[in-house]
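Q: what sequence does this backbone want?
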C-alpha cells in the first residue's frame, strides 16, 4: 500500500495498556475496542489504535511466536493461488478468531481490491491505517533505542511491504532492547534508493516486568 504517517514517536506504556484494556470500566477496554474495530475502524483515534494493537499482547494464550492456525493456513493456500473470491470467506472466518491480525487484514484488503469490492476495500484500508499508525507511533525505526514495536514475527514481515519498504535482507538480531528481540533490516529507501537500516522490535512480555 505504501502508506505514510506523520505521528510523533512516543514510548508505548505497556503497563497502562495492560491495566486499561483489561478493565471493563475503561474507555480502552479491549473487547470494546475490538467491537469498534470490527464495525467502524475509521472512527477510531490513534490512541485507541495503540491500545487495540498492543492490548493484544495481554490476550490469554497470545504468543508473538505462535504458529499460524489451520484456518489461516487454509486461507493462505487459496490466496497464494490468486483465487481471491474463494479466499475471502476463508479469510473472514479466520479473522473472526483473530480480528487484530495485521497480515490477515492486509491479505483480505488485497482480495477485495482485486475483486473490485470498493466498500470492503476501504473498510480494510481503514483497519490497516489504524494498526500501522499505532506501530509507526511507537518509534522512528532508525535506531535500536527507537525501533518500531510489533507484536509478532508475522507482523514484522507484513509491516515492511505495507509501508512500501523493499527489504534487501535481515542483517541480524539483538536482544539489547528492553521490550524484546530487535531485528535489523537492510532496506532500500523508497525516495533516495539508498540502502538503510531499519529496526523492528518484536515485543516479548517475558522481557518486561509485566
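A:
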Amino acid at each position: 500500500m505504501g502508506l505514510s504517517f506523520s505521528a510523533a514517536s512516543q514510548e508505548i506504556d505497556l503497563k497502562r495498556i495492560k491495566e486499561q484494556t483489561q478493565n471493563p470500566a475503561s474507555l480502552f477496554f479491549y473487547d470494546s475496542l475490538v467491537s469498534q474495530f470490527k464495525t467502524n475502524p475509521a472512527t477510531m483515534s490513534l490512541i485507541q489504535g495503540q491500545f487495540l494493537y498492543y492490548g493484544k499482547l495481554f490476550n490469554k494464550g497470545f504468543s508473538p511466536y505462535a504458529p499460524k492456525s489451520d484456518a489461516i493456513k487454509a486461507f493462505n493456500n487459496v490466496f497464494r493461488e490468486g483465487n481471491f473470491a474463494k479466499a475471502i470467506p476463508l479469510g473472514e472466518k479466520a479473522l473472526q478468531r483473530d480480528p487484530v491480525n495485521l497480515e490477515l487484514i492486509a491479505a483480505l484488503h488485497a482480495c477485495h481490491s482485486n475483486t473490485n469490492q470498493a466498500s470492503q476495500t476501504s473498510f480494510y484500508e481503514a483497519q490497516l491505517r489504524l494498526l500501522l499508525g499505532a506501530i509507526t507511533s511507537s518509534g522512528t525505526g532508525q535506531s535500536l533505542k527507537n525501533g518500531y514495536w510489533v507484536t509478532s514475527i508475522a507482523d514484522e514481515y507484513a509491516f515492511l511491504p505495507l509501508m512500501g519498504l523493499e527489504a534487501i535482507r535481515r542483517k541480524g538480531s539483538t536482544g539489547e532492547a528492553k521490550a524484546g528481540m530487535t531485528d535489523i533490516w537492510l532496506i532500500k529507501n523508497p525516495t533516495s534508493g539508498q540502502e538503510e537500516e531499519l529496526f523492528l522490535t518484536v515485543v516479548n512480555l517475558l522481557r518486561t516486568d509485566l
